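Consider this record:
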Amino acid sequence: MLDIKLIRENPELVVKGITNKKEPSRVEEILKLDEERRKLVFETDELKAKRNAGSQQIGQIKKSGGDAAALMAEIKEIGDKISGNDARLRELDEELNGILMYIPNLPHESVPVGSSAEENVEVRRWLPEGFSFEKTNETLDHTSLGKKLNILDFERGTKLSGSGFPLYKGKGATLERALINYMLDFHLQKHGYTEIFPPFLVNRESMKGTGQIPKMEDDMYAIEKDGLYPIPTAEVPLTNIYRDETLQEKELPIKFVGYSACFRREAGSYGKDSKGFLRVHQFNKVEMVKFVKPETSYDELEKLVNDAEDILKELQIPYRVLMLCTGDLSFSAAKCYDIEAWSPAEQKWLEISSCSNFENFQARRANIKYKREDNKKSDFVHTLNGSGLATSRLMVSLLETNQTPEGKIIVPKALQKYTGFAVIE
């Protein structure tokens, strides 16, 4: 959530940021409500001061044996006016907060201005030694490999739950589990994160805190009877661990990593490429979340991206890093890098990680603060998160990159101690 003071003092800057994100601007409406609210607060404070002074005067009149009826009637009228103002203030607060919940975070000044994903900027790419983009006649896609090797069964997954719910079998299931355990261990041992195993269902306040609700509610699964939501990412429970809490400066940065299954309705995605793992409603992901001081958050973002990249280098997966333009940024992000792995069969890059700095946008919504050591003043933390990594499209690249001409899969060396086998055949 944006600070109302920022909108009040820099309306043109806010309008520009919202417009660059291709979102509707309601700044004029916000400013109008804010002005009415501030005038009403001023008027109400004056009335309360007048009522307090009058109440003291009534006491003095009664003490001296005088008639205070007229003044009492006047004070009652003032009290009724205050009650009416307080009711209107509650309405204004509710209306303002309702609008602010739909206002996106502003892009950081370093983010390139653009209207769509086509205008994202490639920052760098990494290719294993001897890698070639050329597709051979023997190159099978991940669905064909999964069927041939009896490790994936998308048809029966559809029978069980519907399209977009994959079923792993045998060594495919073992490989998926190995990936998750390997990535968790890597971040714990090499990058110094603290592991969290979070709930996979959260309440509405948690979804509000990270910005999924109300803006993107149509993309979420919901269990209405219980008021719970299957999480779209572990970012939601991990970030909300400190909701309505104040941390100490000496505790920062805090670095969490956690595995979760993720559930997304993907409303509005119909007609997009949905073969196999390319677009699913349930997938597994290892998520990194950071709570940091504002002055260090952009350095922490670069470190976060590097942490995700280290996994891909160890697995020898070709990838590139993109800086998203303003029009492709998520609702809550101020700056975001996407990491994409190469699919030899599809002959295209597939997103497997997004690493974002939300600055204090999520912290304001979730009321997460920290107390500075120098003056004990409380301020909002900056929150960051990144996939480290999502397994579904990573599995696409891993299977297709490591296939042999005979259709076997060579398991990357980094994973072999987790799988217990070196080849899938």
Notes: Residues 37 and 388 are 44 Å apart (CA to CA). The chain has two domains: 4-100, 117-424.
